[in-house]
Structures are given as structure tokens and as C-alpha cells.
Amino acid sequence: MASHEQEIATFGQNDDFWLFGYGSLIWKPPPHFDQRVPGYIEGYVRRFWQDHRGTPEAPGRVATLIDKAHWETLNDHHGSTERVWGAAYHIPTSRVREVREYLDIREINGYSIQFTPFHPAPFTTSISSPPASPTAFPETLFNHRPSLSIKATTTVFAHPEMIPTGSVRCLVYIGLPENPQFLGPQDPDELARHILKSHGPSGDNKEYLYLLEKSLLELSRDSGDKHVTDLVRRCREFEALENGVIGEEADIEATEHVGVPLHKTGSTEEQEEVER
Ligand code: BEZ
User: Which distant-in-sequence residues (6+ apart) come within 8 Å of 219 by Cβ?
Assistant: First the structure.
């Protein structure tokens, strides 16, 4: 059995480099990939418990995963969902080195590499036609806006014959409890207020939260995350109250989600600035 370090060094050598995204990677893919498959991993809980540099005086809060067994020892306010939904990207062998360099910034931000089985969503339907060239393929993703009303099947961006039928081992970045930017359990109202007032080079922290919720809901009919949805509801309520909307009206505003288009990062430099 390879050590963790050996696995980090050799992972993906058989054209099987799969990267799992559960945060911004869902809507902001790595610079090169030839398949994007919605699905889930198990044994973790997603939480907005990772401090992100944002502006020094107001570091934002971004998602990390907590090992479920460890999470069960903590005093958390939110329940857990059985699965952590996200998107897995297959990176062509010729691009692995480049993508790994691009991903390194995550480690600087307190995230560590872990490996875990990824389960493609059941009932997947391919909606893409084979790409004319590897670089044309990602554009398919950005030009396509899956409709929120279509939930019976899951959209994937992959050649139908290439969608993995069983689980695949994937690499995932996790802000472990030992890292200095890991915050631990947060009061949900305080967390929502903090997200609302935080801004980073990439924009408002709340946009990260709102985009995460929206992208999750587009993955599958089962892919919502109660922690994320609850935070969105709190943020929308606080925003509505700030805008002078009161009582029932604030509740209605909080549940009316405005769609935001998928965002493509302009450059590696920008990516490094915005990475979360
Ligand atoms: C992601 O899965 O989207 C992600 C995880 C850790 C750092 C940055 C992004």
C-alpha cells in the first residue's frame, strides 16, 4: 500500500487523474479537463468553517470538508447530509502537471490533499457532443446553463462512453482541523453576518455562497446541502432586513434566489487572487 506522499506523487499516472470539487471548483473549473461529471463523495460534511484571506480586516468564510467521524465529536448547529455533492473533473495526462501547479495555491490557503472514492450521479444523461478540440470542450460548460426546472436527470459534460460506471478514486482539497485557517463550529447567524460583510479580490463573499448553492442545485435533484441552503436563507433574510423589508416580506425575499451566470476565471494570476 502506497504511503500518502507516494500517492500524491504518483496519482493519475494511468490517465486516471480525477479531481473532486465541492466549492468554487463546481462553477469555476480547472484550466484543463476533458470530462466533468456530477456526483458525490461520502464520509465528509461540508461546512463554511475555513477562513479565507479576503481583505485582511474581514477574511471571508469558505467551504471545507470535515471528516464525518470527527464532525460527530463536535458541537455543531446544523445536521449533516449523507453525501457531499460536487463535480469531478478528469484531467488529461498531458495537462496534469499544469493543473497541479494551478491547484498548488489551495495548499497555500491551508488545504491538504486527500484521496477518496467519487460516485458519479445515478441517472446521468450526457448533453454534450464530443469536443472539436480539448480546449473547445470547457466552453461547452460555460455556454450551457442547465435549467433549474430539469431535475429528473443529471447533466454531465463528458463523452457518454467515458462516464465512469463505478466509483473512481479522486483527489480532493480539504482544510483539515489542524490548519490555522480552520475555524471549527460557527454560530449560523454570526457566520451569515460575517459572510455578508466580507469581500475579497474576487468579489463579495456572499456571491461565493450564493453561487455554491445554485451550482449544487443544478447538479442533481438530490444534491442540495442543508448547511449551505440554511446559510443562504439567513443571508437573504439579513439583506432583506437591511433593505427595510420586514416580517413575511423578508422571508419571501430570502427564498427568491436570483440566478448568477457561471464564471470563468480570466487568468492564473486572477485565479491565485480569488482562490477559495
Ligand atoms: C473546491 O473543491 O472547490 C475547492 C476546495 C478547496 C479549495 C478550493 C476549492
Answer: 26, 38, 85, 86, 87, 121, 154
Confidence check: pLDDT of 50 > 50: yes
Do 271 and 229 form a contact (C-beta atoms < 8 A)? no
* DSSP per-residue codes, 137-206: HHHHHHH----TT--SSEEEBS-GGGS-SS-EEEEEEE--TTSTTB-----HHHHHHHHHH-EETTEEHH
User: How far is the centre of ligand 1, averaged over its atoms, from the C-alpha of 25 (Å)?
Assistant: 6
pLDDT for 49 equals 95
Distance between first and last Cα of the chain: 32
The domains of the chain are located at 4-255
The amino acid that residue 4 corresponds to is: H
The DSSP call for residue 82 is: S
pLDDT, tens digit, 9 for 90 and up, residues 184-225: 999 999 999 999 999 877 779 999 999 999 999 999 989 999
DSSP bridge pairs for 17: 91
Q: Whose C-alpha lies nearest to ligand 1, atom 2?
A: 21
Share of the chain above pLDDT 70, in %: 71
pLDDT at 122: 79
Above 80 in pLDDT, residue 72?
A: yes
- Tell me the CA–centroid distance for residue 24 and ligand 1, in Å: 6
For ligand 1, atom 4, which residue shows the shortest CA distance?
23
Question: 258 CA to middle of ligand 1, Å?
Answer: 23
Q: Measure the CA dihedral 269/108/17/67, to 10°.
A: -140
Q: Is 107 a catalytic residue?
A: yes
Q: Calculate mean pLDDT across residues 126-140.
A: 41
